[in-house]
Each structure stands twice: as C-alpha cells, then as structure tokens.
Amino acid sequence: MRKMNLIIAAIACVALCASVLTGFKSLAATNEAAQGKTLGGWEVAEQNNPVMINEKDNDRIETVLKGSGDNFKVLDLVATQVVSGANYMYLVYGTTADNAVPGYYFVTVYENTQGIDTIIGTTPIDVNAIQTIAPMGKGMVGGWAVRGTGKPGMLSDQNAQASFDKINNEAVMYNPIALLATQVVSGTNYKALCRGNDSNLYVVTWYNDLQNNASFTSAECVNIGAYSGL
Questions:
Q1: Which of 74, 27, 28 is nearest to 51 (CA)?
Q2: pTM of the model
Q3: What are the pLDDT digits (tens) for 79-112?
Q4: 3-state DSSP call for residue 194?
Q5: DSSP designation for 52
Q6: Taking the CA atoms of the chain, what radius of gyration do you get in angstroms?
Q7: 83 membership: H or E segment, kind and range
C-alpha cells in the first residue's frame, strides 16, 4: 500500500510540474505577443535627404565643420537658443574623427557677439534611448526654440513614408526631418525625428504589420538641452 501511495504521489508530482511548465510557456507566449512590436534591436536608417535650410545657416555649419576631422552630411537646423550671442543645433549624419561607425549627431554651434562661430558640442543620438522631456510651451524646450523645417514627404524610404502617412492624423500633426531607425519584428517599427505643428521637436515611433496596416506607437518631445553639449 505504501508503495502504491508513493507511485501515485510521483505521478501527481510529474503532472504538477508539467502544468507549471505549460503555464510558464503560455505566459512567455503571452508576453512575447504583447511585446511583438518591440522585439529585436533598432538599426540606424542611413537614407535621408537634407531638409532645405537657408543659405546662412547652411554656410555656418559647413564652415565650422571644416578642419574638424568629422565627416557629416548636414540634414537640418533643428533649434536655436538666444544667449550672449546665439546657439544653433544641427542634425547631422556621418562619422567623427574618433568614431568611424556612422550615426546621427546633434552638433551645437555657438556664435558670439562678434559673429565668430565655434562648435561647443557634438553629441551622438542613441536611437535605442533618445532623451525626452515634457514640452515646456509652444516650441520652447528649456529655452531652445525649435526651428526644424520638417515637411510632408521628407522620408526617403518610400515604405516608411507610406506607413507614416497612414498614422499622421493625430491631434498634433508631425512633419518628418529624418528617419532615425527601423526595427524588424513581426512587421516593422519605425522611428523618426519630426517637427510638430505645435512647434516642438518629437521622436515619433510607429508600427507597420505584415498586412501593411500602420498604427501609431508614441510621440515624445526631445530633450534638446540634453544634447546641446552645454
């Protein structure tokens, strides 16, 4: 009788373990499904056309970059700040003298009261962890005024642009400056730097599924000051 009880207990134990394992698998599957839009790593998107910026702003950044050892394509002037003189923040793509791996950077140029320009910050943009902040008013984030000239149809990736057009119907409309990164999941996640019609700078994330349906994920105001180099 005792032997029979031990056998029954062993069978019950095996069944319990199997049930627990099944539960773990089910939970893992549920979690995986819930995270289906965010699995995998972001890959920096390389194809962006420069937004049209005025000649004076373009000359400023092009001149000050000469001799720096950096190899950048200037995409846009994204923000300015009035100080004793003025600060200008540009979005650029390329490599620095110290890093041959291309990526996106915010380059901040200080123009003193005599009109002399100096680079005061070259800050890389980590597309996996862009620093954000709550907007502090219409187009004013920590004293920076957003100047990004983003406009409809700026994304050079046609699939990304078509997908973006489907989700760009929120209360705040977004004009893209650059496609920063893509992420292959069950479908594709996209991340773009945009100028909102409320005159703030945003990183907008959206998802395009395998049936070509697009859905808005988030829009977060970029913490411009964190990238200024000040």
A1: 74
A2: 0.79
A3: 999 888 999 999 999 999 999 999 999 999 999 9
A4: strand
A5: P
A6: 24
A7: strand 71-83
